[in-house]
Write a structure and sequence with these properties.
Blueprint (H helix, E strand, L loop, with lengths): L3 E9 L13 E5 L2 E5 L4 H13 L6 E2 L8 E11 L5 H11 L4 E9 L11 E10 L12 E3 L5 H10 L2 E4 L14 E12 L2 E8 L6 H13 L7 H8 L14 E7 L23
Parallel strand pairs: 5-12, 7-8
Antiparallel strand pairs: 1-5, 1-6, 2-3, 4-5, 7-11, 7-12, 9-10, 10-11
């Protein structure tokens, strides 16, 4: 029997997980005996829940791996179902097996040609930063925070200056395993709404820590420690060690993954706006 491939839209609170990817068990020595434990990951939670519904092992592939503390409103995965199940089983049934910090938003049968990662044409991220003197409480873990006033105008100019195709070596993590540092940035925008700064980025793909490193450099510009030309200078230097520190993960959201319309995937909910969660009056 041929397996049916399914695509799922996923959202999760990254603060509850040690990143996307399942990790090897860690070993601690207690009373002279080695004891292994596995850190919770999004992949591990999803595969366990799907396997419960399928009553057989299920492996998943995601559109983009997220780090510890990074959230998602529009992650996309695919898996090959070893059994026939209705769409409701892969949404409501799986959600009943998942921790509350992770949920399936939709499920769609797709052809075996579909690949969550390689069929994607782009990814979209949003970073939420609360810019006020007082630290976060209600939004702790859900947004970044910076206490000194930030000037959004040079930050906006700097963000616009890096649009296009570039070598982003200055903004990749030292442990990044991507074969090439070249990426095409199609959106790079910083706006202010009251005390909130919203960073929007879209690209064909991103390097490890790339967005958090971009935000860190933009904050350096916003607090007046560097001119807007810093971004162009860093791109030219191609040296991560010369760049500002990586910013905290708390405010980063994977909001959408782009696919050709021919795949017939749902569009509603893919580009959820995390800022609306905090839009209290």
């Amino acid at each position: 029997m041929s397996l049916q491939r399914w695509a799922l839209g996923i959202e999760y609170d990254g603060g509850s997980f040690h990143g996307w990817q399942t990790q090897a068990p860690t070993t601690q020595v207690v009373d002279g005996r080695p004891i292994g434990s596995t850190l919770p990951t999004v992949q591990g939670a999803l595969e366990a829940a799907l396997s419960q519904i399928a009553d057989a092992p299920v492996q998943v592939v995601c559109a983009g791996r997220t780090d510890t503390g990074v959230h998602a409103t529009g992650q996309v995965i695919h898996f090959d179902a070893p059994v026939l199940r209705p769409e409701t089983a892969w949404v409501r049934g799986v959600n009943a097996q998942l921790p509350y910090s992770c949920a399936v938003r939709w499920a769609q049968p797709v052809s075996t040609d579909f690949h969550a990662r390689f069929s994607a044409t782009g990814r979209r991220y949003r970073y939420l930063l609360l810019n006020r003197p007082e630290r976060l409480a209600l939004f702790s873990g859900r947004a970044g925070w910076f206490h000194r006033p930030l000037d959004v105008e040079p930050m906006s100019h700097a963000a616009q200056s890096i649009l296009g195709t570039h070598d982003f070596s200055a903004f990749r993590a030292a442990e990044c395993q991507a074969n090439s540092p070249v990426r095409t940035l199609t959106e790079s925008r910083v706006t202010r709404q009251g005390d909130w700064l919203i960073f929007d980025f879209a690209a064909n793909a991103f390097l490890q820590h790339m967005i958090r490193n971009l935000v860190g450099a933009l904050v350096t510009i916003g607090k007046g420690e560097a001119p807007a030309s810093l971004m162009i200078e860093l791109l030219a230097q191609k040296n991560r060690t010369l760049s500002p520190p990586t910013f905290m993960p708390d405010g980063l959201y994977l909001t959408a993954v782009d696919y050709d319309a021919g795949w017939g995937l749902p569009t509603a909910g893919l580009s959820g706006d995390p800022l609306q969660i905090f839009n209290f009056r």
